[in-house]
Amino acid sequence: MPADTTLGSVAIEALAGIQPEPGVAKPDPILVADHVVRQFGGLRAVDVTHLEVQRGAITALIGPNGAGKSTFFNVISGFDTSDEGSWTYNGQTITNTAPNKLARKGLVRTFQLTKSLSRLKVIDNMRLGAGGQTGESIFPAVFKFTWGRQEADITQRAMNLLERFNLAAKADDFAGSLSGGQRKLLEMARALMLNPDLIMLDEPMAGVNPALKQSLLDHIRDIREEGTTVMFVEHDMDMVRDVSDWVVVMAQGSIISEGTPTTVMRDQRVIDAYLGAHHEAALTESGESLTNSADKEADA
Amino acid sequence: MDFGFILSQSLTQAIGVTAIIYCLAAIGLNLQFGYGGLLNFGQVAFVAVGAYSVGATVIAVGSSLWLGIVIGILLAIVLALILGIPTLRLRADYLAIVTIAASEIIRFAAKSSDFLGGAQGTTGAIGADFYALNPLPEWERFEFGPISFTRVDMWVVLVGWVVIALATLLTWALMRSPWGRVVKGIREDEDAVRSLGKNTYLFKLQILILGGVFGALGGMMSAISRGSVQPDGFVPDFTFFLYVMLILGGTARVLGPLLGAAIFWFLLVFVEQVLKEGVSSGVITFISTTQIGPIRFILVGVGLMLLMIFRPQGILGDRKELMLDAR
Fold first, then answer.
1. In chain A, where are the structural domains located?
2. Taking the domains of chain B in order of start, what are their residue ranges?
3. Chain A within 8 Å of B89 (Cβ-Cβ)?
């Protein structure tokens, strides 16, 4: 973790003294969830008693397949409805609020299966992200002089972001012609057009080649340096260890562990949950940090 | 065979009143389906509402045509709200089911309503107020090369194409705007657009209304030009012809519906006239004149299949764009 970065080191410091216990209180939470339950028939897919997400930090949400991470994400971001519970964002209650309203409040998410708008140009994907556009109302839309100037500003901002994400050369191509990794980048850049306070990334590394992974990690750190809180769901243990300030582990719908990456990966409950859930899964790289070799031998 | 006559007939139909009616409705459908991805299978319902509004206002109520036009636009908006409010929050296919059912409900309701003339429909001088404004000189016929119109038809065609031009201009202006960008985004992936802070429901309602009003304008044109409104003119086939025209011309292209409607009517009339001439001059012996009607649709259908195979994006479409999702 880069120690020379300012906001990042502040976040790490803020989280340093906190007890690594599920549901532990944070000094400055941006998101607080209480008793969030999502049921599918008899299955309690999500059953989170309490969770606080520290402002300005990068929080990872990990867990074995079927742990309810994505469902929890969907519920919080308004794409699914909870059966019980409440959650607040910046102190405001946002329980079961529509995603478009959340986005305008500064809570933006990306998707596991990238949702780049294929038959729109890359630059139009970006422009779409900008909030408060006059030209998005039907009557002013007819007259370009009402929105032309704003459009120029938005385009400028979009180009700057595309530049940063190495997509500037693709600005006039259809988003559908981008590779999987580029789409991930585009989706992240597009979310940033909204100047979010909290960005929720659903598996940002899925399907991204290793060369691009490193630059994605840098982008995520950059986002934090700009003061945006990052929360992400991920399977890639390397990424979790590299980039996150705080890790939340879910299993069978509940949070079973929380803490800094190093503490969590030594937590016996986490090791059990992972190995119990998928024995043969490719945990090899992460396995070293998850457990010591003796434990692995014993489990095998 | 008199090819001059066949060509003149076909070209006249390609820019004639029928093409105009379909073109207006197709412009509306292009907004809804082409740009917004809304599966409206009941565009004919809006056409019927437009036609009956002017028909009933003039004939049954005895009021002015202009009032009928205002009522027609308002009723089209109401219909769009009735169809859209409950269904647009649901998945796209629900709108398809509701709209096709609604169009049939409207047709049958009109058919059994005495006020609207029942199965006979409403007939009379619906367009009298409109024809009274005709400024054209009192010539027998207006001829442009192979195309010719009567004075009355010329006036209808002129106004019709002006309305189409305005509707097209509006489509163009909207689709280059940020509003159009959101609409196209909804077609691609509604959830992505919602995650970016747009109230997609409102946008979908707006395109349903706008497209519906264009459909109603088409219906008004039909009532005015034909001087009658008949319930069985508003069968679901009408909507499917609109889809054919749209796909033929190129969906989500500003000029797609214009080109599609013109070519569709040109082909339909051309094939019909060729068959008619062929049968009457004894060149074609294996079919009778009564079979020409269905056979022209078969031939045009085959033509459309070939189009789909060799140019699935339509005439104005961009094949690269169409193939993006096939990756």
1. 6-116+197-299, 120-177
2. 3-320
3. no
Of 1.10.3210, 1.10.3470, 1.10.4160, 1.20.120, which CATH number belongs to B3-320? 1.10.3470
Interface of A with B (CB under 8 A): 77, 79, 98-101, 103-104, 108-111, 115-120, 124, 127-129, 131, 133-138, 141-144, 147, 151, 174, 176-177, 190-191, 193-194
User: What is the ipTM, given to two decimal places?
Assistant: 0.88
B319–A contact, CB cutoff 8 A: no
From the list A77, A100, A177, the residue facing B324 with the nearest CB is A177
Using the predicted structure, report yes or no on whether residue A125 has a pLDDT greater than 50. Answer: yes
User: How close B318 gets to chain A, by Cα (Å)?
Assistant: 11
Nearest-Cα residue of chain A relative to residue B200:
A100
Q: Which CATH architecture has domain A6-116+197-299?
A: 3-Layer(aba) Sandwich (3.40)
Contact at CB, A104 and B192, closer than 8 angstroms: no
| Closest Cβ–Cβ partner in A99, A138, A174 for B324 | A174
Please state, rounded to an integer, the average pLDDT across all residues of chain A: 86
Chain A partners of B184 at a C-beta cutoff of 8 Å? Answer: 117, 119-120, 124
Cβ-Cβ contacts under 8 Å between A and B: the total is 113
Determine which of A27-31, A232-236, B75-79, B125-129 has the lowest per-residue pLDDT on average.
Answer: A232-236
**SS3 of chain A:** CCCCCHHHHHHHHHHHCCCCCCCCCCCCEEEEEEEEEEEECCEEEEEEEEEEEECCCEEEEECCCCCCHHHHHHHHCCCCCCCEEEEEECCEECCCCCHHHHHHHCEEECCCCCCCCCCCEHHHHHHHHCCCCHHHCHHHHHCHHHHHHHHHHHHHHHHHHHHHCCCHHHCCCEHHHCCHHHHHHHHHHHHHCCCCCEEEEECCCCCCCHHHHHHHHHHHHHHHHCCCEEEEECCCHHHHHHHCCEEEEEECCEEEEEECHHHHHHCHHHHHHHHHHCCCCCCHHHHHHHCCHHHHHHHC
Q: Is the pLDDT of residue A205 over 80?
A: yes
**With bands split at pLDDT 50, 70 and 90, how would you rate the model's confidence at B308?**
confident
